[in-house]
Amino acid sequence: MNLDRVLVIAPHPDDDILGVGGFLKKLSNSDSEIMVLTVSGHLPPLYKKEDFNITLKEAQRAHEIVGVTNSEYWKIPATKIGDLPISEFNGKFDRLIKDFMPSVVLSPYPDRHIDHRLVFDAVMVATRPVGAGNNIKLLAAYETLSETHWNAPHIESNFVPNWVVDITHTIEDKKEGLACFESQITPFPGPRSIEAVDALAKFRGTQAGFAYGEGLQIIRMTS
To answer: Is the whole model's pTM more than 0.70, yes or no?
Structure first.
C-alpha cells in the first residue's frame, strides 16, 4: 500500500488524534509525508477567541508527540461550517487536494456531529477520481470516539471497520497526544477519557488479532 503522502482531515482539534493518533505516529516513524488539516475551531460566536488559542496550542503539542510537522488550521467557527456556501467550502478542499497531491486521504466518518457530516461530504467531492483525485489510491474514514457511536442503528449509517491498523507500539503516543487536550478530555467514564480511548483501541486490536488497533472504513482503494 502506497503511504508516501497522507492527508488527514480533522473537523476539529483532537479529532485526528482520537481517530488515528496511533497511525499518525506509525506513519511518522516511516518515510511518509503527513499533512493534517483542522477544518474548524473553537471560535465565536459559540466560543471565545481565547478558547481557539488554547485548543490550537494543545493541537500543536499533540502533533509534536505523534510526529506531525505539517499542519494547517482553517479558522472556521465550529458548528458554523454550514453557514459557508457549499461551492466555497468544497473549493477549499479541492485546492488542498491539488496542492498537496495525497496518495492517501483519511476523513472523519459522517456521524452525529454536523461538522463531521459536512466535512465528509466535502471530502467526497474533492477526492473524486478525476484530475488531482486520480492520485488518491486510498480513501478511508476513521471513527471519533464520543460522536461516531451515537448514530441511530439501522436508521443512519453505522461505522463498520473493514481495516484495522496495528498501533500496539504507538498506543502510548496516542494517549500522550490526547492528554495534551486538557480542555477537551473528560474523566472516565467520559467517552473522551484516556481510559475510553485505550479501551476502544484494545477492542479494535483484538478484533484483528493484535493488542491495540485503530479501525477505519475503506471507501475506495486502488492499486
So the answer is: yes
